[in-house]
Design goal:
Number of strands: 12
Oligomer: single chain
Helix content: 40-55%
Strand order of the largest sheet: 1-4-5
Radius of gyration: 20 Å
Length: 419
Amino acid sequence: MRYLSKLAVILCPLGLSACVLVVNPKTPNDLPTPVPNVTPVDGSDQKSVFLAALPESTPNRQLLVESWDSYRRKFIQGDGRVIDYEASDHSTSEGQAYAMLRAVFIDDPETFALTLKWAESNLLRQQNGKPTDNLWAWKWGKKPDNSWGIIDSNFASDGDIDAITALILASRRWQRPEYMELAKTKLRDLWNLSTISGTDGKRYLLPGPTAAFVPNESTLYLNPSYLAPYAFRIFAQIDPGRDWLSLVDSSYQILENSARLSTVGLPSDWVALDLKTNQFQTMPNSSALKSLYSFDAYRVWWRLSLDAVWFNSPQAQQYLQQSTQNLQNLWTQKSYLPARIDLQGNQLVDYDATSQYAMFYAAMRLVKPSIASEVLTKKLLPQYKQGIWGEHSAYYTQNLAWLGLWSPDSLPRELILGK
C-alpha cells in the first residue's frame, strides 16, 4: 500500500539521475540463499526471557511477547534477512532496522545480531566493488536477471536513523562497545549525506540522496514521518561534534508549519519547502510523491510519542494534541478512521488500516487515554490472532502494530539517557 514512498518507485517519475540503479558487485556465491521459506531464526522458546524484559506494569505485555516471537519466526530468515512477503519477498533497510529496534526493546540480542549482520553484509552501498559510505541501500531482492542482491542502492534515511538508534540502545543494554563505534561511523555519513543547510542557515533532514530530494537550489522535498527528534537527541549524546539538536528544531518547524497545509491540521506523507520564502507547499501535481495523510504519515504519531515520553518534550505533546483533533473527532463520531485522507479532511478510500490505528493509539495513550482504550478494544485486538495482526503476509502492519502498542516507558531510562 505504501511503496510509492520509497526510492525505487519515486526517483524515476521525478526524472532524476538517481533512478539509475547501481548493483553491488557481490558475487552470487557471497549471497545468502534468498528463499523465503528457509529455516527461520532460532525457534527455541524464549518467551520467558522476553517477558522479563518488560516491566509487569507494561500494557499488553503478553501480547507483545507472543507477537514478537511469532514475527521473528515468520518474517526473519535464519541468516537474519527480514522478508516483506507483500513486495516480491524483498528486504529493505527499514525492515532490518525495525527488527533491530524491536529486538533491543524486548532484550533479544541474538535476533538483533543476526539482522544487523545480514544488513551489514548485504546492504552496504558500493561502487566499483568498494564501499562508498556506511549507510544501507534501501532495497534488496530478485533482480531482472533472476539473481538476488541490491536492486536500488539509494539510501532511505528513516531506516538508517532507526538502525543507528537501535545500535546505540543495544550497546548500552548489552555492553557492546562495537555497536556504539558502528553507530558513530554511520552518524558521520548520515550527517554528511542526508542533512543539508538551507539558505536560512537551518539544518534539515533529507529523506535520502540530495539528487532525489533537492530538485533545485531553493526547494527541498521532505517526509515528516522520517523526522525523529528523540533520535537526534540521542545522537547528540554520542556525537557532540555535529549539531544534531539543530535537527530537533528544524523537525518541529517542519511538522508544525507543514501541518498548516491541511485545513484539519494533519501531517502529510510528503511536502515541499521553498527555502527562499521559507514556505511549505504541497507536492507538484506531476510528482509521484503526494501531499496527503496516508501510510507514511501515520508514523508521525509514534515518533513524537517517543519524544514526549523519553524526553518530556512539550512540543511533541502539543503537536500530538493539536494535529490529532480531526482524527479524534472522526473516531468519536464513527469509531472508524479511513486509511487515506486529503488535506481538507476528505475520506479518499473506503477502507481503514490497522497500522494507522496502532500509531494513533500511541498518541492517544498520551493525550486521550479513553480513545486509546476504545481503539485497542475495537480495532487492534480484534485483528490479532495467533501472533499476527490481519493478513499473515502483512510485514508493515506487524511492525507498526507492535511499535504502537509497545510502551516507551518500559525501556530503562539509563539506556535512553546514557547514564
